[in-house]
Amino acid sequence: MPKKKEHTPQDHKRQHGKAVAKLLEEVREKDDQHHQDEDEVLMKEEEKEKFEEE
């Protein structure tokens, strides 16, 4: 069995950075799905306004 290499603070930071990035990604995906509904509503509102202006 290979000897486990020393866990340096830099390794820890790198792991932490990856974990944080992954979490942020998941949060963004959920957020995007939530915002898509809002965007669709906003687009419909804008289309109405454009239509009324003409």
Helical content band: over 70%
Strand share of the residues?
under 5%
Describe the sheet with the most strands. none
Total helices: the number is: 1
Shape: rod-shaped
Q: Give the total of beta strands.
A: 0
Radius of gyration: 23 Å
Order of helices and strands: H
Q: Give the class from helix and strand content and strand pairing.
A: mainly alpha
Poorly predicted runs: none
| Multimerization state | single chain
Terminal CA distance reads 76 Å
Kindly report the average pLDDT value: 79
Describe this structure in words.
Helix content is about 85%, strand content about 0%. It is mainly alpha-helical and about 55 residues long. The longest helix is centred in the middle third of the chain and has 45 residues, at about 10-54.
